[in-house]
Specification:
single chain; 91 residues; mainly alpha; 3 helices; flat
């Protein structure tokens, strides 16, 4: 029994039939991933009370801010190391 590939790579550019083509009328654009953020917010609003929504959003904002601070700190450490390696050399 021949095995089917689990994943088939999609072409880089989608096929587009020319305007006015009968094939174009038969094709329709299907977006496999609809806007998920809106759907998640709707589910969140349905399941969580207002205070829980605010707490979750505040927690996510804190995570994003922590990541930004860590990124800034890494960049500053990298720049300081580059500066120090140029300033303090062997005597």
């Amino acid at each position: 029994m021949p095995s089917r590939p689990l994943y088939v790579a999609r072409p880089r550019t989608p096929f587009r039939a020319p305007l006015g083509s009968p094939l174009r009328a038969q094709l329709r654009v299907v977006r496999p991933h609809a806007p998920v953020a809106g759907a998640l917010r709707a589910v969140e609003a349905f399941l969580l009370s207002g205070g829980q929504q605010t707490a979750r959003r505040n927690a996510w904002a804190a995570v994003v801010a922590d990541r930004q601070r860590a990124r800034d700190r890494r960049e500053a450490e990298h720049e300081m190391a580059a500066l120090m390696s140029g300033v303090i050399g062997p005597r």
